[in-house]
Design a protein that fits this description.
By secondary structure, the protein is an alpha+beta fold. Among the domains are: 105 residues, Dipeptide-binding Protein, Domain 1 (Dipeptide-binding Protein, domain 1); 201 residues, Roll (Dipeptide-binding Protein, domain 3), CATH 3.10.105. The chain has 13 helices and 19 strands. A hairpin with a 3-residue loop joins strand 8 and strand 9. The longest helix is centred in the C-terminal third of the chain and has 17 residues. It is globular and about 65 Å long.
Length: 491
């Protein structure tokens, strides 16, 4: 309920400056990024800072998941679906003062798709055959085959546009984008600060400064919110505290959906997980609801494949991997492991992984699978698990938008190599008809569920907490990161 002030009260507040506009915001986040170049790293924590705010792409995601204009103010698509002609926004400058030209776009896309590309989502650019710049404001992208996802792909954080003249290594600690905020400072292990870009080509940010403070411990996050040190925690790491915040008029709880398929990721090339019966046994050993209740305090939607339940093409395949420990033991025996086996379970820092890992380790132990549990920091997880593929099992949320295509990459960290699935993804990429794409997406869900590639747990909920007078924070997370230029204080 809003307070009602008398005229005298208003004058008193004005006299003390209490009604002065608040133009700064301090956000909390659990995971600090390893660096700040979204085109050279897989960590979602990078996009949580730079996506839209510092770096922009030709297109971008709106808060409802739709694709909207970014650095491209318009585009034309040829009748055969092979040529996209983008016209760039006018007056766009990088934060160092240099002009954005079509040459920067050509260079950025060619770098992302190059043979030696370090882009974590290189597959987004696989259909590009050629990129050219007829003039400084026009970019022509020619595809090798029609791709119904191309504009969607260009909205990912991995597809943002960099300055051709920049030192790429330097961007990891000194990003130079075109967005509504400029990078100001990074105190390693503590915080990152951004400042409003006064020369922004589009609508300016409502806030002057945004500071993101990194608090990995859920108890510390709770204390920081309660004490007022943090203004908002867009993804609060302790869902057990949400009811307490909800009952406190100082705060608002913002619960929405994410693109985060949370999975018990399985190394498909490591014995015994190269045996589909073992992977099937693993799936039936897991009680998803116990994990959602125990690790997430009820927040999360069970999934049976790598696909978001809010997507119209979603198939509920959870019954195919229902909790059945007796069947799990039977499958293990059929696979040649009647006494079970021992493997590693390497857990990154998020609460869903650490808490979920304890529950899953107990569930697997009940069917004879012993796990050697290791808690890793985010950088360690990226090096050992994601890059090094040195793991048996791990738990992670894949928060990239509609990313089932990662299963077509045999070099991806869980190392699923299926020519049939790869062909299916090629067919999906080439399809432009809505119904055809819908059916192919459902076929893809069935295929990886049938192969029990990973243990599919739940869709991560977006559980945020903010001071009650903050507006503009995204309720849902259609991608990693959000547009902080829309956030403001209401007084």
């Amino acid at each position: 309920m809003k307070r009602i002030l008398t005229g005298a009260g208003i004058l008193a507040l004005l006299a003390t400056g209490a009604m002065a506009e608040n133009t700064s915001l301090t956000l909390g986040d659990q995971l600090e990024p390893p660096h700040l170049d979204p085109t050279a790293g897989a960590a979602g924590a990078i996009d949580n800072v730079v996506y839209i705010n510092i770096y922009e792409g030709l297109t971008e995601f709106a808060s409802d998941g739709s694709i909207i204009k970014g650095l491209a103010k318009s585009w034309d698509i040829s009748e055969d679906g092979l040529t996209y002609t983008f016209t760039l926004q006018s007056g766009v400058k990088f934060h160092d003062g240099s002009d954005l030209t079509a040459s920067d776009v050509v260079w950025s896309l060619n770098r992302a798709r190059a043979e030696d590309s370090v882009n974590a989502q290189k597959g987004l650019f696989a259909s590009i055959a050629d990129v050219s710049a007829p003039d400084d404001t026009t970019v022509v992208v020619t595809l090798s085959a029609p791709n119904g996802s191309f504009l969607f792909n260009m909205a990912w954080g991995d597809a943002v546009i960099l300055n051709e003249g920049d030192d790429i290594e330097a961007l990891k600690t000194q990003p130079n984008g075109t967005g509504a905020f400029t990078f100001t400072n990074w105190v390693q292990g503590d915080s990152i600060t951004m400042t409003r870009n006064e020369n922004y080509w589009g609508d300016p940010a409502k806030l002057e400064t945004v500071t993101i403070k990194y608090i990995s411990d859920p108890t510390a996050a709770f204390n920081a919110m309660m004490s007022g040190d943090i203004d908002a925690f867009p993804t609060f790491p302790a869902p057990e505290n949400l009811a307490q915040f909800d009952a406190d008029p100082r705060f608002s709880v913002i619960v929405g959906s994410t693109e985060g398929e949370t999975i018990l990721s399985t190394n498909n090339k490591m014995p015994p997980f190269d045996n589909v019966k073992v992977r099937e046994a693993l799936a039936h050993a897991i009680d998803r609801n116990a994990i959602i209740d125990g690790a997430m305090f009820g927040y999360g939607t069970p999934i049976g494949s790598h696909f978001a339940p809010h997507n119209p093409a979603y198939l509920d395949l959870t019954n195919q991997s229902n909790y059945d420990p007796d069947l799990a033991r039977q499958l293990l025996a059929e696979a040649g492991y009647p006494d079970g086996f021992t493997t590693t379970l390497k857990l990154p820092p998020p609460s869903y992984a650490r808490r979920g890992g304890e529950i899953i380790a107990a569930q697997l132990r009940a069917v004879g699978i012993e796990t050697e549990v290791t808690n890793l920091e985010w950088g360690q997880w990226l090096e050992e698990v994601f890059k090094g593929k040195d793991f048996g099992l791990t738990i992670v949320s894949h928060t990239e938008p509609m990313d089932i295509g990662i299963y077509a990459n045999p070099d991806y960290y869980f190392q699923y190599d299926s020519p049939e699935f790869q062909a299916l993804m090629e067919e999906l990429n080439a399809a432009t008809d809505t119904l055809t794409r819908f059916n192919l997406m459902q076929s893809a869900q069935r295929m990886i569920a049938d192969d029990y590639v990973n243990g599919y747990l739940f869709q991560l909920a977006k559980t945020g907490v903010a001071k009650a007078d903050i507006r503009g924070l995204w309720e849902n997370a259609p991608t990693q990161g959000s547009n902080l230029a829309e956030v403001y204080w209401e007084h």
